């Protein structure tokens, strides 16, 4: 059956997904303001509303479904009852239409996710429908009885039949006008006053039985919970019932439904904004009615987080002056790190503010952990300004608790200086904040602590994104860990790329226990072999998978690495998964997924990695990261370019600091070459090299490494040529790093190129490939240019290029400015080098030619004739070969006669 053509909709009106009556009513009302528009209903949560829409609204008001619309035709998008992009996924494809205009009608508070608009009408009324009704009345647009009833339904539901405190006089006025237009109250009463099903009655009884009242800052808050196997669409109705039955002022109902916890909140007190609280849980709504759907958390976890949010929300009177510690202990910017460490040690501080010399003006702060690590590396005499956190947010005495919370939690700032007239008069620490939020710090939800274990379960994502064989391998490792009594984690890039939706099946496991012992058993179970590295407490398991392909799994013991001196190889000690992750280079790589037992799929994020991925930022885990391992500088650039992330100002400053200390020069050649090779194998290495040049990294590796204009042009041309070659899907893969290295060494003398090879400590085979290809090109290049000028035959070009390595041919192609030469080299790569003769040695033997070197000479000449178009078929090739064979035989006879004569 053929699919019906989609409907063009130059003007389209819609509302948020999981719509309520106000959303549907606002769509219908907006349809009168935009008479040529197509109305699109996004679907509803509540069963009664869905039934009403399906049975009535489709026919009565001409409402369509998004799947029926050709979204590419939309030029004006009208969105009602929301402004959030994330709440209109059904029309998301239209948001990228060129020249799209967006009109917004809404009554919800502003959010960071709000759409940009060419027109918006946003008022804090009880219902969006009321706002549009006011506009209809102003324009003198009359309504039918059905329209008036539909619009009234939206207003009555969103104002709780005018009982919610969010109701305004404008809502009463809108309803009065709708009544004049024929609004039928009996119909509204039937739809608003719903009879509960037996399932709803049972759930309501559960909510009443589990309801507990908690007095938070003097305000009674009721929290009730229920659990059900299937989704209940009308769950919000039960919250209304409870509020009325028990005369509750503030209510939060939590219901576990499948893989999520549904939260419905109602408030009749201005002191409790349930919309803000539900927004923090991932939902939204009004100050007096809101909801949230929380995935991958238990009701207990949601309840704990809810408590923390309530203590925070019901604390409007608390300000920085109530939290801060004073007087303030700090250090001036000209003091050494050793001095700062002594101060922090004396007073038991985890961080101190840094003041401008001779003042109390804050220019940054230094953490105790950073200071002690710097001392370990012999950097105690460095000024504190070298490793302090420069990007520091300060507040005034009267700054509200919420803003302080945002700085410490949202921006991961260890302490917040409180200033007056630019002078620091106090500091607020994380401990101060926790004690302010709850009287019992143990009850603070983990989600509100930046150093807590930020967890969610990503088992469904793992099952969805990974091949079945890899999923089975993870489960097998988890079961083994459970049997051996150790915790097993997948870590690092594997987890990072899983969250970024990028294929990466290189599996690294970390064991909280004896990783090598685990690897031995694991290797035996998968029928593989083992390579142990006792010094680093790691092992490599190598086995063949079900498809016959070789697979490798790195297994490590959870460990803490410390560096005895800058740029040294790490020394390893046993530790926990948290410390194992802390040793890693960047936050985006400091993630783990637990695999054992019931914890399978638990994502562990101690350091705000998910936030950094969302913000698209590269951030080191501590200020001495580049001092301990300067190769991380190259990795920072590689990851930034690969993922289109940015390197923040603080991390950039730390890169420049490490280079200023000359640490790149202390690195061994193999370590630099390993990282540089990874960069040159990336899809966009030229941009990586440009950023390394900007930081001064290339010159720090070797003084001759400079991106001159000619080298930059050649690198860009090389990237184009390699991208072209990749699209040919030929069997032979070039060594990309070698071609880029040749470009980087453009116009260098042999000794200079050799010094580059020495600095990088290229392995013998790589060194030979680099220098020999370079020298071969120096002699072959002029010959190819001569061939071009003389318009020589293709067989001659073949003879010139065939001895060259593939990397040399591609380098020549990239380096040439002649389109004709590029075309001919392209012809060699795609056709000439693959040409085969239709004859072979057996044919020559049949012609009477004895085996020997003459076979090669004859076949080479015939191949040249074929390449030049003189011997396209086997018949012609045989004729050509016969003539050549006769010549070889005659020459052999002459040489034989001459030999006999000399003997005589």
TrEMBL record:
Pfam families: CBS, DHH, DHHA1, PolyA_pol, PolyA_pol_RNAbd. GO terms for biological process: tRNA processing. GO terms for molecular function: metal ion binding; nucleotide binding; nucleotidyltransferase activity; tRNA binding. CDD domains: CBS_pair_DHH_polyA_Pol_assoc, NT_ClassII-CCAase. Residues 324-382, 388-446 form the CBS domain. Keywords: CBS domain, Magnesium, Metal-binding, Nucleotide-binding, Nucleotidyltransferase, RNA-binding, Transferase, tRNA processing, tRNA-binding. SUPFAM superfamilies: CBS-domain pair, DHH phosphoesterases, Nucleotidyltransferase, Poly A polymerase C-terminal region-like. It comes from Nitratidesulfovibrio vulgaris (strain ATCC 29579 / DSM 644 / CCUG 34227 / NCIMB 8303 / VKM B-1760 / Hildenborough). Belongs to the tRNA nucleotidyltransferase/poly(A) polymerase family. The keyword Transferase applies. This is PolyA polymerase family protein. Its cofactor is Mg(2+).
């Amino acid at each position: 059956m053929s699919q019906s053509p989609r409907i063009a909709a130059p003007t389209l009106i819609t509302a948020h997904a999981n719509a309520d009556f106000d959303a549907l009513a606002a769509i219908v009302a907006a349809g009168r303001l935009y008479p040529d528009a197509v109305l699109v209903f996004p679907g509803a949560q509540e069963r009664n509303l869905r039934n009403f829409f399906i049975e009535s609204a489709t026919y009565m008001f001409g409402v369509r479904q998004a799947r029926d619309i050709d979204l590419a035709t939309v030029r004006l998008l009208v969105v009602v009852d929301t402004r959030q992009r994330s709440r209109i996924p059904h029309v998301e494809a239209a948001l990228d239409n060129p020249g799209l205009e967006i009109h917004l009608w809404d009554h919800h508070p502003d959010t960071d996710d709000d759409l940009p608009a060419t027109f918006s009408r946003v008022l804090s009324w009880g219902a969006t429908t009321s706002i549009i009704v006011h506009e209809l009345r102003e324009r003198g647009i009359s309504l039918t009885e059905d329209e008036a009833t539909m619009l009234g339904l939206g207003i009555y539901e969103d104002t709780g039949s005018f009982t919610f405190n969010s109701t305004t006089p404008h809502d009463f006025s809108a309803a009065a006008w709708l009544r004049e237009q024929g609004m039928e109250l009996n119909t509204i009463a039937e739809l608003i006053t719903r009879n509960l099903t037996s399932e709803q009655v049972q759930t309501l009884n559960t909510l009443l039985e589990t309801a507990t009242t908690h007095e938070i800052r003097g305000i009674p808050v009721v929290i009730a919970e229920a659990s059900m196997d299937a989704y209940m669409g009308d769950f919000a109705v039960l919250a209304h019932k409870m509020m009325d039955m028990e005369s509750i002022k503030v209510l939060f109902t939590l219901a576990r439904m499948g893989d999520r916890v549904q939260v419905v909140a109602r408030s009749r007190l201005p002191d409790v904004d349930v919309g803000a609280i539900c927004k923090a849980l991932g939902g939204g709504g009004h100050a007096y009615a809101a909801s949230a759907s929380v995935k991958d958390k238990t009701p207990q976890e949601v309840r704990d987080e809810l408590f923390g949010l309530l203590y925070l929300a019901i604390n409007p009177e608390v300000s920085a002056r109530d939290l801060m510690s004073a007087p303030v202990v700090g250090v001036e910017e000209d003091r050494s790190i050793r001095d700062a460490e002594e101060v922090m040690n004396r007073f038991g501080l985890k961080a101190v503010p840094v003041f401008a010399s001779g003042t109390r003006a804050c220019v940054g702060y230094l953490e105790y952990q950073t200071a002690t690590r710097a001392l370990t590396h012999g950097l105690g005499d460095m000024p504190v300004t070298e490793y302090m956190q420069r990007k520091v947010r300060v507040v005034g005495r009267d700054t509200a608790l919420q803003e302080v919370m945002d700085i410490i939690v949202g921006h991961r700032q260890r302490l917040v200086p409180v200033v007056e007239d630019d002078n620091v008069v106090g500091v607020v620490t994380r401990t101060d904040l926790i004690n302010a939020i709850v009287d019992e710090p143990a009850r603070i939800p983990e989600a509100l602590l930046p150093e807590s274990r930020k967890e969610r379960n990503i088992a469904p994502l793992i099952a969805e994104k990974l091949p079945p064989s890899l999923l089975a391998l993870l489960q097998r490792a988890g079961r083994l860990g459970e049997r051996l009594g150790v915790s097993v984690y997948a870590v690092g890039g594997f987890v990072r790329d899983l969250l970024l939706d990028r294929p990466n099946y290189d599996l690294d496991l970390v064991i909280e226990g004896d990783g090598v012992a685990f690897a031995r058993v694991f290797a035996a179970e998968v029928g593989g072999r083992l390579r142990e590295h006792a010094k680093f407490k790691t092992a490599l398991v190598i086995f063949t998978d079900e498809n016959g392909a070789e697979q490798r799994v790195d297994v490590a013991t959870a460990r803490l690495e410390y560096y005895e001196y800058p740029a040294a190889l790490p020394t390893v000690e046993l530790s926990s998964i948290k410390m194992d992750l802390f040793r890693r280079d960047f936050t985006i790589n400091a993630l783990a997924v637990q695999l054992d037992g019931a914890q399978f799929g638990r994502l562990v994020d101690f350091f705000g990695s998910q936030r950094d991925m969302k913000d698209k930022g590269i951030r080191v885990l501590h200020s001495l990261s580049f001092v301990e391992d300067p190769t991380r500088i190259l990795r920072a650039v590689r990851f930034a370019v690969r993922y289109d992330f940015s390197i923040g100002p603080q991390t950039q400053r730390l890169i420049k600091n490490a280079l200023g200390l000359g640490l790149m020069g202390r690195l061994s050649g193999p370590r630099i070459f390993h990282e540089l090779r990874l960069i040159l194998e990336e899809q966009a290495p030229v941009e990586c090299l440009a950023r390394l040049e900007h930081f001064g990294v290339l010159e720090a590796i070797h003084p001759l490494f400079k991106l001159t204009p000619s080298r930059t042009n050649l690198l860009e041309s090389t990237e184009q040529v390699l991208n072209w070659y990749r699209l040919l899907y030929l069997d032979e893969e070039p060594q990309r790093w070698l071609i880029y290295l040749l470009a980087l060494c453009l116009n260098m003398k042999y000794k200079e190129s050799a010094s580059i090879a020495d600095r990088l400590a290229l392995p013998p085979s790589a060194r030979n490939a680099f220098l020999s290809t370079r020298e071969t090109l120096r002699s072959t290049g002029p010959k190819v240019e001569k061939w071009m000028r003389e318009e020589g035959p293709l067989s001659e070009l073949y003879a010139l290029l065939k001895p060259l390595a593939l990397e040399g041919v591609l380098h020549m192609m990239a380096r040439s400015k002649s389109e004709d030469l590029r075309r001919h080299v392209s012809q060699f790569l795609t056709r000439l080098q693959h040409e085969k003769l239709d004859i072979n040695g057996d044919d020559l033997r049949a012609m009477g030619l004895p085996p020997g070197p003459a076979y090669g000479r004859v076949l080479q000449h015939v191949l040249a004739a074929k390449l030049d178009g003189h011997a396209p078929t086997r018949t012609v090739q045989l004729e050509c070969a016969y003539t050549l064979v006769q010549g070889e035989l005659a020459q052999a006879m002459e040489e034989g006669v001459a030999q006999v004569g000399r003997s005589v």
